[in-house]
Each structure stands twice: as structure tokens, then as C-alpha cells.
Records
---
Amino acid sequence: MTSELLTTSFGLETTPKNEIHSKTSELRIKIAALDAELAKNFKAQFSTAPFLSRKTVSFQGNKGKPAYGWYKYKEAFSAGLVEYFLGSYKGRISGKVLDPFAGIGTTLFAASSQGISADGIELLPIGQEIIRARLLSERELTSDDITTIERWITFRPWQKCSDRVPFSTIRITENAYPPEAVEAIERYRGALQQESEKIQAILRLALLCILEDISYTRKDGQYLRWDARSGKRRPGTKAFNKGKILAFDTAITAKLKEILSDICDAESPVTLFPVNQIAEDIRLFNGSCLEVLPTLETASYGAVMTSPPYCNRYDYTRTYALELAMLGLTQAEVLSLRQEMLSCTVENREKDLLKICPQWTRFIEAANQQKLLQTIYTYLKHEKTSGNLNNNGIPRMVRGYFSEMACVMGECARVLKPNARLFMVNDNVRYAGVSISVDMILSDIAQALGFEVEKILVVPGKKGNSSQQMGAYGREPLRKCVYVWRKR
Ligand SMILES: C[S@@+](CC[C@H](N)C(=O)[O-])C[C@H]1O[C@@H](n2cnc3c(N)ncnc32)[C@H](O)[C@@H]1O
């Protein structure tokens, strides 16, 4: 029988189609066998955790919790989750907690409320700004400041402000707001210049919190979705209507009221904290954890509680583009930020990890030695050359993700005190029809880096796949887990 010839996506080589299929099947069988072997090794550590729910491990669990809901950071986990783990291990945590992917600071604030000091590292300026403004709102405001914010709610000084301060846009945020919203934002930015630094920070916080609501966009995982009223439409997509687009005045006054009510209802009166005592128990490092972790002292932390970006192609620099532009980032700065983020998008280029820290050879090697991961790399490369991947950047992204995570994990092992725990929330993912057991692969690498894997807690209710994966390969539920590792 003559073999059918298939041109690869590059059009350079030809390989018989049946050979490609048999190689694909062979690799899939190998992956399934290695996955089953790891599952057997971790059988004692796996358990379904009925006390965890999809709500607890996500931002939704913060609903109704003062301050945590000000800014809708969909990638956040809940304060309840942090309180649960820190509470359960309380007697066994001695020293500060660290979150190398701090987001909007859930770990930091929840730990602090339990009397545990916390350090966080965050690269995305929107996360940094929310943490900074929240610290300030909780610890530095005086009753005069509260009166000033009340005045803003009642008299809306921006309406009469003639001094308009424009804001920058980047390519993907052009025409993101109705013209009347642009005018109101500019007047608001003009009016807030009359206030003290502290009040400005609170007013800017409120503005950042409402941008999505007053815009034509909706945050949607990998990108921003555009309402048809904007006149923009992604090619090949259906017209989208996000529902009500809030008027600026309605949205900003509601947000300022919410912030004020949370501050005033807080258990501790706001004036309790003298101005010079800001955040002694919470410290934030602005920057990439790949750069900051090597500067932290060895054996200095009592626990790590974190959730890294998932290996799911979600691009924070796109999803949070409105906020980044409002914070003044230029197009070039956003592009460079995208490259600095932990690799989890198809656009991430390979990072020179050994240039960041020459001591990381052992960590990278631990990822390179992981057998299941190696076979997944081979499979993805094969699917790429066979033209079966919907994006050719997927193999590089997956490789980058695990190498960088190995370095972060190795550094966490270094900075943790002996016997201290690391708690991590993460999702498994699926590419080219193959589920990648991120939970077992990272846990296996963690063992090589000096951790004992105590538990892999499976969150009940499995997550589905992307519509692309489901359409092409059928449904296969994906695990979401919390890993509990102990530094040996
Ligand atoms: C899943 S979110 C964590 C959310 C956090 N648990 C919370 O409750 O807000 C992952 C975070 O990692 C941040 N991040 C990505 N790459 C980073 C890097 N190289 N260094 C530090 N933070 C990074 C992202 O900006 C994002 O805020």
C-alpha cells in the first residue's frame, strides 16, 4: 500500500501520515503509562478534599468579605483558603509566610489577620497597586481622610473640574470606553490632583476597580472580549454584548461607598494605626520572583502559600490591559512585562534562567529528568512538526513553564526553614488531546528539590477543557489541586 504523504506545517519535510499517527499513538500510550506510574507512586498522598470547593480556591470565595472584593482579580484565591491552611498548621508555622506570586495580596492580608507576618512578590503593576492602596486604606487613614472621601461621594468634585488629565492607551485598549466615560475619567484624574498623596491613592484604587464595568470590554481568560457597541470585533467571533455598561458617576460613587463602608466597619478603627507603622507585618517586593527569590535569606520563612499562573495560556498583560494602561505603562513596557511573567502564554520566549542565577542548574536538571514531562515534550514537539497543534508556541511554553517553576520551587525550598510547608494551588491542563498532570509532575520535581510530598488535595468537581480541546479530542475532566509539601 502506498503511504499517504503529509506536508508538515513548515512545508519542508514530508512524512508518511500513517507513520505520524503511529508515533502519536505510541507517545500517547507512553504518556498514559508514565502518568499511571506516577499516580501509583502518589496514591497515598492523593485525596479528595470535601472542605475545599471551587469557590474557596477562587476569587468567588471572597464575596462579602470586606476589602477582598474591591478589585475583581479573577485569578485570586480566597482569604478563607489561606486562613484554613495557615490555621490548620498554625502550631507548625514558625516565622513569616511567603507568597512569590502575590497577586492582589490575599495570602499577605489573610496571614496578617491571623497574626502571621508575610512577604509577597508580585510582578504585575495592578497587583502591586491594589496591595499598596489596601495597606494604606487599612492602616494610614485618619478621620479627616474619611471625611474627604465622603465629600467626594457627596459632591462629586470631578463634575466641575475643568482640568482634564488624559490617560495613556496601548494598542489593545484603544477605544475601550464610551466618549462620556473618557471625559469623566479625565476630569476625575484632574480633580484628584488637589488631594493629599493618601487620598489620591484611594481615589486611584476606586478608579482601577471600575474600569472593566465602564468599558466595552470583559476580561475573558486569554484575552479581552469586546462588546459589539465598541465597533471592534475579533475576526471569526460572534457579536458579543456584555450587558449594562455602567455610567462613570454611578460606578465610582458605588465603589467609593463600598471602600469607605469596609474601612469604617473594620474590626479595628482605622485611626488605630499610626502613619509611620505601615505594613511592618506585610512586605511587598515589586518585581519578578525569579529575580527576587535568589536575594532572600536561606531558611528564613515558616511557610509558602501560593498559586502561580497556571500553564493555561492566560495572558495577564492582555486581561489587565485597561488597568496597566491607566497606570501609565507604555506599549513597550507591556510587551516587556509579558516576557518577564512566568511562561504561560504561547508568546513567551525562552528565558535565560542560568543568567538570572547560575546556581539553578540543579533545579533545571530536576525538571529535565522528570520522565513524564520529557515524554510530553517529545509528544508536543512531534505534534508540532505534524501540524497538529493549534499554536506552535505550545511546546516552548510548556517547557518554559516547568523549567521556571522548578527554579521557583528550588528557591522556595532554599528559603524555607526545615519542616516548613509549601501550599500551592494549581490546575492540570490539556494540550493536543493529552492531559498534563501538573500536580504529579511538579510534586515529583519537588521531591528532587528537597520536599516531601505530604498531600495532593483534589478540589471536588472537575474542570472542563477549552472548547478547542473538547471539539477536537472529546471531554476529559482536569484536576484542580492544593499541594502540601514539607521541606525535608
Ligand atoms: C494565580 S495569580 C495569584 C493570585 C493570588 N493568589 C491572589 O490571591 O491574588 C498568579 C500571579 O503571579 C503573578 N506573576 C506572574 N509571573 C510572575 C513573576 N515572574 N514574578 C512574580 N509574580 C508573577 C501574576 O501577575 C499573578 O498575579
---
Amino acid sequence: MPDKEKIRELFDDIAPQYDSFNHKSSFGADRSWRRKAVMEIADTDRPIEVLDVATGTADFAIEVARKAAPGSHVTGIDISEGMLQAGRDKCKGLPVELMTAQAESLPFTDCTFDRVCVAFGVRNFEDRMKGLSEMYRVVKKGGKLVILELSYPKNRLIRAFYKIYALKILPRIGTGMTGNADAFSYLPASILKFPLPQEFMPMLNRAGFNTVRHSQFMFGVCRMYVAYK
Ligand SMILES: C[S@@+](CC[C@H](N)C(=O)[O-])C[C@H]1O[C@@H](n2cnc3c(N)ncnc32)[C@H](O)[C@@H]1O
């Protein structure tokens, strides 16, 4: 598992270029993946309390705040103050609050949120099981967890092409944009280490969630998990 201090430093360092790297490296597909996850979160006409874990520069939190019913509120937490700082200006005038905190010890009482979400953050948690258990603790009974995470295609041929992109091309794009070669040797490699659904869905059950479903986008390059308390 990644070391939390190293992850914090890595994201502090790449924060100013993070948004444009994201959109360029996914050819804009990250926006449509986020939209699908937002639809799962903002799926009711009543106001909801949402927690966006590993919120980064708050793109996902902002999208949720825009789509959720009036009166809804989004709290975004992250370990990287640099990422949060890059997000703060974008949140002005929206019901979004950003704060420094870690997924493994969330500073909220039990059953606080109607929805909890994480976009592209779970694979960087230092203690994944603790993070999942904490999210279970703070979501209300009947509430929902939505996770988006990068993964890899199961089909061998498509996976071979994807590996070339992830391990050879992506690090060049990232290093060229940020000057941080270490970050872009770690980040793409971590995608290939993240568990596939058959392993990850039982982890969600072990954290306490009772119903878990999974969908994949772009042959499995991105996966969405929806789990209920
Ligand atoms: C790839 S970025 C994703 C940011 C954002 N959710 C998005 O959709 O663009 C991953 C984020 O996870 C944060 N992170 C990593 N480990 C964390 C932890 N244990 N607790 C909270 N945030 C964490 C990093 O600081 C970083 O901002």
C-alpha cells in the first residue's frame, strides 16, 4: 500500500497541473465517467448531505453540488492541502466545503451523510480496508457509497494495448506536464495493481455494505462501484 506522506507530497507537487493532465490523459473521458457517477449520487429530489472523500481539486464535488437538489451540501476532504487549494476558487458560490482530513479517520460522527463518494482516490489510500470501513460508518442507514476508480480491461488484447499506453505513454505525458517523473511512474503502475471487481466487491461487503454493484466504462479502463448501507 502507498505511504500516506509520499502520496500527500506527490499530489501537493502536481496539484497546479492536475486538472489539465486528467482531461488530456483520458481524452476528456473522465468528464463522462464523473457524470455517470454524479447521476448515482444526485438521484433524489430531496436535499442531501454528501461527503466526497479524496476530493482533490474538487471537480467531482462541484459536479455533485450542481446536480443535487436545492438545499444539498457537499463536504470534500483530502490529505493534500495543495490539491484543496487548487480547488477552493472553483467552489466559490457553491454549497461545497473543503477540509483537510484522511479517509482512514474521518472527522464525522456515525451516520452523517446520505451519500459518500470517492473518484479516483481509493487506490491511493494507505489502508484501503480502514478507508472503506470509515465510509461505511459515516453514511446513513439506507445511504449509498459511489466509487469511481481506474482499472484495466479484462480482455487480453485490449489490455495489452492499454498497458502500453499506461506504462509507456502516460508517464511521458504526465512528466512532460508536471516535471515529476516519480509521480508518473507510481500513478499508472498503481492502476494495474488495483483489485478487479471479483476481489474489490467482497472488500466492500467486509466493510459492512450489503448490496454492491459494478459497472465498467471504456472496456474496464474505469469502473464504478455502488454500495448500500
Ligand atoms: C487522483 S486524485 C483524485 C481527485 C478527485 N477526486 C478527482 O476526481 O479528480 C487522488 C486524491 O486522493 C487523495 N488521497 C490519497 N490518499 C488519501 C487518503 N488516505 N485520505 C484522503 N485523501 C487521500 C490525494 O491527495 C489526491 O488528491
---
Amino acid sequence: MVAGAPILDISDLWVSFPAYRADPVRALKGIDLAIAPGEFIGLVGESGSGKTTLARAAMGLVPPPGVVERGEVLFDGRNLARLDEEAHRAVLGRELAMVIANPRAELNPVLTVGRQISNIVFYHMGVGRAEADRRALEMLRAVRIPDAERRFAAYPHELSGGMAQRVVIAIALACAPKLVISDDATSGLDVTVQTQVLDLLKSMVTEKGASALFITRDIAVTAHYCSRIAVIYAGEIVELAPVATFFERPTHPYSITLLAAFSHSPELRQRWTRSADIDAAPIPAGGCSFASRCVRRRERCLAEAPQARPLAGGRSVRCHFPVDESVT
Ligand SMILES: Nc1ncnc2c1ncn2[C@@H]1O[C@H](COP(=O)(O)OP(=O)(O)O)[C@@H](O)[C@H]1O
Ligand code: SF4
Ligand SMILES: [Mg+2]
């Protein structure tokens, strides 16, 4: 891990969404996560596990009607949710930028792509229009858009999905932010384009000395791009580990289930999948969130929710009976 005060420091963060005639949905339940300057950290988990809520909370933008019930998020030492609107807006896009999937929805359909990049530089960097345009063109070249001068004057609908995603990356990185959050940014692109866009994002973030929170449903992708991996399940980080350790010796049963899903071995997948008939019994509240799907579950898992605890080698796991604990 890279030394230095964390650029993003999330401690004991609880976020919930009120529900009509039902208990609130607890989207995040006690998240602890610190990202060091220069670090590229992967956040992996299935749909609905809380990834986007975490990304939004990191920006100080929990979507209404969501509420932060407990905990704190500090970006570069500041709680963004407490800034006034103008100060908040000055940080977003300048120091902290987000890239999401569906670039066309991100881009303004009636402005040329060059002008959209130029606008963000003009707004945040205190430079004149000619200089902002010059930097926008430079960014189009940096994200390897062919024939950048001509594309500067193109409208979003004139670009392919991959090109549009590059423009979104150019906008995100135009002001050299300290942290880039990528929320499933390449889902929907075909695999070759996805690899190109991710390589580009990685090299540009690294070049600018920024950090990244890289959110994906695809655990295989993180192996290539991240230094550490956080696995999130039902609003809890269940495992956090350096990438090499994680792929060599995953310890949380859910991490192994995720990895098994990508393996070519049906036996491995079967070994880590709980058969439906065992699941018939309801799981009492107050136990482990993963108990209904866990092949290793024992009595204690139903009675007591596991807390995150540190293991050797800079990793932590939230499980009473992690796999192969003895080797750590
Ligand atoms: N605006 C919202 N209103 C109500 N519930 C929400 C809202 N946004 C997210 N949730 C709930 O919070 C949980 C986490 O969602 P989300 O953060 O979008 O997960 P992910 O990005 O991992 O798919 C889900 O149960 C989802 O239904
Ligand atoms: S605490 Fe028990 S149920 Fe939960 S993941 Fe660990 S072994 Fe499985
Ligand atoms: Mg999401």
C-alpha cells in the first residue's frame, strides 16, 4: 500500500433508504475503507450490494431519500456532505471525478464534445476560453481519440459507445482530480473496447498520480487493474486484501463463490454453492448476512453477526470461519 494520509477515508458508514410500510433498506452497514494517494482499489460485489451508494456517499451525494445514519466520509480531510453547495460543486469535477456506465446519458447531446471538456476546464481551472479549448484538445488526444481536431467539433451521437466513454474519461480527468471513481464504467461495451478503455483509465490515473476507486461486478477485471480488492456483500465489506494475496488465498466464503463463478471447474462451483433444499429454513435476523448462501455456515453464524477483523498481510475478513485461516 502507498504511504500517506488517505485521500478517501470512510469510517463506520451506515446508509439507509426508507421504505413504504416496511423496514428501511440498509444499503451500507458499517463500511470502513481508506484509499491512499496513488492507490487503485477495486470494489467488487453483485448487483444491489451497495456499490453505487458507496460511490455516491464518497462524493457527499447520497441520493434522496437515502440518509447517512452513522459514520463519516472524509475526502482529503474534508466531509463533503457538510460543505455548502458552491464549495461542494467546486470539489466535484475538480478534485474528485466520477465515470459511470452509459456515457451517452452523461454527455450533453446539444454541445460538441470539445466544448464539454473545455467547459469543465474553464469552470474549474480559472483559465481563458482559448486555453481551455487547447487543454480540451490535448485531453482528446490523451484519450487517444483519432483525428482529435475533427472530433472536437463532433456531437455525442456521432461517436461510437467506446469513443463516447473515452470522452467521459477525458472530462473526468481534465482537471487532474485527486480521486477518480469509476462505477461499472465499462459495462455495456464489448470486451475488446472495454479492455482498451480500462487500460486507458488506468494509465491516465497513474500518470496523473491520482487514486481510483474502481467499482465492478467483474472480479476478474480487478486482478489486472487494482492493488487491493474490497469485496462487498449486502452493504458490508466482507474481505479486503492486496490483490495478489486475494487471488492466491481468498478467505471469505463469498469471495471464493465469486471466484468459483469464473472458474472452468463445475466441481469447484458446485462445492461453493449451497443447494436450495438446505436453504429452506429461514435465517434469523442478527446473524451473518451471507448465512443463507454459505456452505460453511455453522450454529454460531446464525446467532452472531461477524465483525471485520484483521488477518496477517494487511487484509481483513468479516467471517467467523474464514477459509484457511491457519496459513495467514
Ligand atoms: N434511491 C433509492 N431508493 C431506495 N432504495 C435504494 C436507492 N438506491 C439504492 N437503493 C437500495 O440500496 C441497495 C444498494 O443499492 P446500490 O448501491 O445501487 O447497489 P449496487 O450499485 O451494488 O448495485 C439496494 O438494495 C437498492 O435497492
Ligand atoms: S460467518 Fe459463517 S455464514 Fe458467514 S460467511 Fe463466515 S462461515 Fe459463512
Ligand atoms: Mg451500481
